[in-house]
Design goal:
Layout: H1 8-11, E1 17-22, H2 30-40, E2 49-53, H3 79-88, E3 92-98, H4 106-124, E4 131-138, H5 147-158, E5 165-169, H6 173-203, H7 212-228, H8 232-247, H9 256-276, H10 280-294, H11 305-332, H12 343-367, H13 411-424, H14 429-445, H15 449-465, H16 469-485, H17 492-506, H18 509-519, H19 537-553, H20 562-567, H21 570-584, E6 588-593, E7 601-607, E8 613-615, E9 620-628, E10 634-636, E11 638-648, E12 662-666, E13 670-672, E14 677-684, E15 693-705, E16 709-716, E17 734-738, E18 744-748, E19 754-756, E20 760-769, E21 775-784, E22 799-802, E23 808-809, E24 812-819, E25 824-833, E26 837-849, E27 852-865, E28 868-875, E29 881-882, E30 884-886, E31 890-899, E32 903-912, E33 916-918, E34 923-925, E35 932-933, E36 938-939, E37 942-947, E38 955-957, E39 959-966, E40 978-983, E41 986-990, E42 994-1000, E43 1010-1019, E44 1025-1032, E45 1037-1040, E46 1044-1049, E47 1054-1063, E48 1067-1070, E49 1073-1077, E50 1094-1097
Parallel strand pairs: 1-2, 1-3, 3-4, 4-5, 6-16, 8-17, 19-27, 30-41
Antiparallel strand pairs: 7-9, 9-14, 10-13, 11-12, 11-15, 15-16, 15-17, 18-20, 20-25, 21-24, 21-26, 22-23, 22-25, 26-27, 28-29, 28-31, 31-36, 31-37, 32-34, 32-35, 32-39, 33-37, 38-41, 39-40, 42-43, 43-47, 44-46, 44-49, 45-47, 48-50
């Protein structure tokens, strides 16, 4: 049984215009065959024309009324009308004839053409709108001057226009091909005229408004003819009008099949043209409206309620397939699909409808009368139909065709038709599989994982129906693990039932028991909606638990679940039971990997130790806890536990495997009480050869063996740890076997040792023997304990030890011969730190005790810090702090050195960069007692430097400050000099075009006395500078001389400008400011870095001419603590 089959021209895509070719002898004439092939193989989307050869067998007479034409207005679309314009009634008939312009029998040939066309006109009817075209096949190019006259003659005689006459030269194949393209274009234009005339004729017919079927028919004809005319927008409008008419059509029970069929066709055409017009949203909207209107389940009784329901499901499936194909073609043309709108959704919907129809068909055949036979004569064969088994209208019942007015047939005929439909109805499982595969492909393309799982589950059901349980089991296993991976365990119930059914059919004991141990878990049925009516989860799980125990005890064989029993026949069930009896009669062993399964029992295990290591010789306790979630007691034959090696501490061999070490334990029979936790304890004592091995519980196995069938439920590491009453896990997952602990104590008297970077500090360790007997061959090794993840820089350890030959090394070794029980030994250790921070010293004590070697490790932490905190700075020659150096000028480097501990400085040395030229001493030794510093005291050494003019880099390394120091000798410290190198950092180097210096020519400076001041200007650039000098005075000075001077300085030249001032008051006065303007280069404050900030003027009474000249003090008021004194 299937839905109505429409003509290919309606659903195959764009319909093509029909053109008949006649007069070509393709068999005997090569030229004619060449022309025939050109037209037959012509493909161009611009001209959708199909060419057919008109032979003598074709019936060209106008169609007559059908013998069974319905007189009343009952049918909607005639099944023959579409074929009329796509197969029988051409738009253009093309007549070919061999005729050159200079043919000797021109008149006879002309008469022959007129005869052929006249005969064709009579065959089609004089009133037919079919156009005729005449093509003259010419063997050679001709330039006959009378060609135009002959064209007029033949057109007049054949009653055609000159646009309907064509010539085709066969002399040059390339020219022939070009001419064929032009001819096809002309034929296409003639077809357009034919369909336009036909449309006018159809539109001119009067249709009564009270006959909706005739209105639908007329709109459909106009739409299809417009589509042939390539006017798709007009066609879409008429299709919509026809669809709107049918939505208001009164559906009669006996005509519902026909109405739905026509509605589906109209919806298909509307969606097809909407996609073609790139209006996908309109197509989707139309399809939704169509579903809302026609997909609703209606109570139909014709031919029978069961058949009507099956036909509705099949019709829905067909509509979904049609729309999915349209959607897929649109995506192929560039439409973009998304995860919520793509063809896979509609393929999936079609598959669901086919599945629904298959179920209904199966129920129909199951409940049908087995004595029914196929009726004779066949109701689907129309005996007296001249159209040969062709129904008059789409959707019409075949047995109702001979009856007038579309009424029902007699009861016997109707019954025979119903019986024939029932017997012809067969489930179509391959069609379902094909649609599910199409939907799965789309779901993968658009990454719809949940729908993929649903489709795979449905495919497994279909494979069960077609008796391929092996393939079904593979798909269900995949779905099951996908659900676990996505943490959707509440959806496992139906999948496990499918696994149970598939494994039952193939006789797989392992898969069957694997499904049972999961179905026994009541937690699987938290969603009560998945359970049968009025069934509690506990009772449902107990049913599977009872089945599991009966199989293990040998009291029963696996039984099919209810859904599988309904699917299988009695013979199939009997065959499966026989196969299971044969299988279970022999000894069987099955292993179920329980990792990741939601089974009826959960297990946890751990080593019951407080720390992650156990000494060799000490007992290790392992505990396994088993929680039975079912309401039934489960007898266990044996609990097996296996521990193995995780890693080997000393062995980095990658070939080392678990087989190097393994221990197995087995327990006795016991019973898993329902809803309780059962614990089992195992103990073993590691031996000396196990030292260095990290142990882990590898596997736990439950053996259920009560008959010939033996089952093993296996778990592999990792296991969850056992929970205590406080909900905290107990024990450890991994236990390392360590050597037996040595009974030796190592301690030091200094709990918080501190040292300075580079100095040699000391610690005294005490080794106490607490063994019961003496120990011998004692060896103490001191090394640095390097934290994990930290690397040793440049191969130099952070702590070096002073050896017996007074050299620093990476370790220190001290040996003792004997140490009595309770006796102790003092061990002084001297070390030097080359890094700051909290460092660790590791002491490893090895000794012999009664022939066995014992080891004791102890770690002590020491703190190391820098001896000095350095704060370097740069000052101008006037002691003004700056952050740069002037290229070629003097500056002062100052270093503030703060002591971090009491110490004595022996000397300080400046190790300057080669680009800096020192102008003062760079090394200063300290006499005994002069360099003592306490914690927090600051020493500020200074040096005057001048940058070399060769510096080209904008940044200059200043160099280093080397301080030689020592700390007084104590009990733990050796008095030795330490040389600390402190980095001074970097400074920016500035280049200025001009440098200004200034000094007072005469001293002392006395109030109201002339004060000569000289400003020296030096051009440090490579350009000639034009300068304008202006002296800017404050109100405390009077000025004598030129206040503004213009100067030109060549590169490297200097100029002295002298000004005479008179101070009006005494004290510290601001130094006169010289303003320099230069058009060649900007002058900023950096050029005046060497100019004093202030001038100290004395009172007249304080000046005694007999005494030496007083000191002129030039200082910076902002930094009174630092002065630079110039003495005469």
């Amino acid at each position: 049984m299937d839905v109505v089959q429409f003509d290919d021209a309606l659903i195959s895509g764009k319909p093509k215009q029909l053109v008949f070719l006649t007069g070509l002898d393709a068999v005997n004439n090569p030229g004619h065959n060449f022309v025939h092939q050109l037209f037959s193989n012509f493909v161009d989307d611009r001209f959708p024309v199909q060419f057919r050869t008109l032979n003598g067998e074709a019936d060209l007479s106008p169609s007559k009324k059908d013998s069974f034409a319905i007189k009343g207005p009952r049918g909607i679309l005639k099944s023959t009308w579409v074929r009329k314009y796509t197969e029988r009634k051409p738009a253009v008939v093309v007549v070919f004839t061999d005729l050159d312009w200079d043919h000797p029998s021109w008149i006879e040939k002309k008469t022959e053409c007129e005869s052929k066309i006249s005969s064709l006109r009579q065959s089609f009817g004089e009133q037919s709108a079919t156009r005729f075209a005449l093509v003259l096949l010419q063997s050679r190019p001709s330039e006959d001057l009378s060609a135009s006259e002959k064209i007029s003659e033949i057109c007049t005689q054949c009653r055609i226009t000159q646009k309907q006459l064509f010539t085709l030269s066969l002399a040059n194949p390339e020219v022939t091909k070009t001419a064929v393209v032009r001819n096809v274009q002309a034929f296409h234009e003639m077809c357009q005229q034919f369909y336009q005339t036909t449309i006018r004729s159809v539109r001119a017919r009067a249709i009564p408004n009270n006959y909706p079927n005739l209105l639908i028919r007329q709109q459909f004809k106009l739409a299809f003819l417009s589509e042939l005319r390539m006017d798709t927008h007009t066609a879409l409008r008429h299709y919509r009008q026809a669809y709107n008419q049918i939505t208001t059509y009164e559906i009669v029970d006996c005509d519902a099949y026909e109405i739905r069929s026509i509605a589906g066709l109209l919806n298909y055409k509307i969606c097809q043209l909407s996609f073609a017009h790139s209006t996908a949203l309109e197509a989707l909207s139309q399809y939704r409206k169509f579903i809302t209107t026609f997909y609703a389940e209606t109570i139909c009784q014709y031919p029978s309620p069961q058949l009507a329901s099956i036909e509705l499901s099949l019709w829905r499936a067909k509509q979904s397939v049609w729309f999915a194909e349209l959607f897929e073609n649109a995506i192929g043309r560039g439409l973009v699909g998304i995860s919520t709108q793509h063809p896979g959704l509609h393929y999936h919907a079609a598959a669901n409808f086919y599945i629904e129809a298959n179920k209904k068909i199966s129920n129909l055949r199951l409940n049908s009368d087995p004595s029914l036979t196929y009726p004779q004569p066949d109701p689907f064969v129309i005996i007296d139909d001249p159209l040969k088994k062709t129904m008059l209208y789409y959707g019409q019942r075949p047995w109702r065709v001979p009856f007038e007015n579309g009424n029902l047939a007699d009861p016997v005929t109707e019954r025979n038709g119903r019986v024939a439909l029932e017997l012809k109805s067969m489930p179509n499982y391959p069609r379902v599989m094909n649609l599910l595969n199409l939907s799965l492909s789309n779901y993968r393309t658009y990454r719809c994982e949940r729908f993929q799982r649903q489709v795979l589950f449905q495919m497994a059901d279909e494979y069960l129906l077609i008796r391929e349980p092996g393939t079904a089991l593979n798909l269900l296993t995949r779905v099951m693990w996908e659900l676990r991976r996505s943490n959707l365990r509440n959806l496992l119930h139906p999948v496990l039932l499918g696994v149970l059914s598939a494994s039952y059919c193939i006789g797989s004991l392992k898969d069957y028991m694997t499904a049972l141990v999961q179905l026994m878990n009541p937690k699987l049925y938290e969603n009560v909606a998945m359970l049968p009516d009025s069934t509690l989860p506990e009772a449902y799980a107990s049913f599977f638990a009872q089945n599991f125990l009966e199989i293990c005890d040998g009291r029963s064989i696996p039984q099919p679940i209810q859904s599988l029993s309904e699917m299988l026949t009695a013979d199939e069930i009997a065959n499966y039971e026989a196969e299971w009896n044969r299988l279970l009669a022999e000894p069987n062993t099955f292993h179920v990997n329980m990792n990741g399964l939601d089974s009826f029992v959960s297990i946890s295990a751990s080593f019951l130790v407080s720390q992650g290591f156990v000494p060799a010789g000490k007992a290790v306790v392992m505990q396994a806890a088993l929680h039975n979630k079912t309401g039934s007691p489960i007898p266990i034959n044996q609990l097996g536990l296996k521990i193995g090696k995780l890693t080997h501490v000393k062995d980095n061999n990658p070939d080392s495997t678990e087989a190097d070490f393994a221990l197995e334990f087995a327990g006795e029979q016991f019973l898993l009480e329902p809803k309780k936790v059962t614990t089992k304890v195992f103990t073993f004592v590691p031996k000396t050869e196990h030292v260095g091995v990290e142990l882990i519980i590898k596997t736990i196995s439950l053996e259920i063996a009560r008959s010939a069938t033996t089952g093993n439920l296996d778990w592999e590491a990792p296991f969850p740890r056992i929970s205590s009453e406080s909900s905290h896990p107990l024990g450890q997952d991994v236990v390392a076997i360590i050597p037996t602990e040595a009974n030796v104590v190592v301690k030091t008297d200094n709990e918080n040792p501190k040292s300075l970077l580079g100095e040699i500090s000391g610690l005294t360790f005490e080794v106490i023997n607490e063994e019961e007997t003496l120990i011998s061959n004692i060896r103490v090794e001191c090394t640095e304990e390097v934290p994990e993840g930290r690397e040793v820089r440049n191969g130099v350890p952070s702590i070096r030890f002073l050896t017996s030959d007074n050299k620093l090394g990476a370790d220190f070794v001290h040996e003792l011969q004997l140490l009595e029980s309770g006796e102790s030994a003092q061990l002084p250790v001297h070390y030097s730190c080359s890094a700051t921070g909290n460092l660790k010293i590791k002491l490893k004590v090895k000794y012999d005790l009664q022939g066995a070697e014992r080891t004791k490790n102890a770690v002590f932490e020491v703190a190391s810090e820098q001896p000095f905190l350095l704060r370097p700075s740069i000052l101008t020659i006037n002691c003004e702090p700056v952050s740069w150096l002037i290229n070629g000028q003097e500056s002062i480097l100052r270093a503030e050195v703060e002591a971090a501990a009491p110490l004595t400085i022996r000397s300080i040395k400046w190790t300057l960069n080669k680009e800096l030229w020192p102008l003062s001493e760079i090394e200063e030794p300290f006499e005994e007692g002069c360099g003592n510093m306490e914690t927090g005291e600051v020493l500020s050494p200074c040096v005057i430097v001048k940058t070399r003019t060769s510096i080209t880099s904008p940044v200059c390394e200043l160099g280093q400050l080397v301080i030689t120091w020592n700390r007084p000798s104590t009990g733990s410290t050796i008095e030795a000099s330490v040389r600390s190198v402190l980095d001074l950092g970097t400074s920016a180097v500035e280049n200025v075009p001009i440098v200004v210096t200034s000094f007072v020519a005469e001293s002392p400076c006395v109030v109201r006395s002339p004060i000569p001041i000289v400003f020296t200007l030096k051009n440090t650039s490579t350009d000639v500078l034009d300068l304008r000098l202006t002296l800017d005075l404050s109100d405390v000075f009077m000025f004598a001389g030129h206040k503004e001077i213009s100067v030109r300085l060549l590169p490297g030249d200097s100029y002295d400008s002298k000004f005479t001032l008179l101070a009006l008051s005494a004290g510290r006065l601001p130094f006169p400011r010289l303003v320099i303007e230069c058009p060649q280069a900007p002058i900023d404050k950096k050029s005046f870095a060497s100019v004093p900030a202030s001038l100290y003027v004395l009172l007249r009474a304080s000046c005694n001419p007999r005494s030496p000249a007083p000191t002129i003090i030039i200082s910076q008021m902002t930094s009174p603590d630092w002065t630079l004194r110039h003495l005469d």
